[in-house]
Amino acid sequence: MTATLYERLGATPGITRLAGDLVDQHLKNEHIATRFAKSDLPRMKQLAATFFIGATGGPQVYEGKDMLSAHKGMNISAEEFMAVLDDALAAMDKNKVGPSEQAEVLFAFYSMRSQVVHV
Q: Are 15 and 50 in contact (CB under 8 A)?
């Protein structure tokens, strides 16, 4: 039996660490840092982790808004969306995520583009 992406990313501990590093990358990224400057960072990290856990085949523990509701009215540009993907790559590199898992994660993120960009 093939392991789920959730399992290959280190299950809850690995994904929680990855999501925290992703949010930290956003805060350093000059293209999007201002969007996160006034955020409740512990909550944002927790929501990112629980969303990611459920989206990768782990337990469904996410209780936040759906992607469209969370981003509606923010007018996120395509460039900002790509900055998020760049941050995801950096966080995955930091956590030594393998290339096939990176591709799966990026595909999953990119599949949400229409729910995030210019909504």
A: no
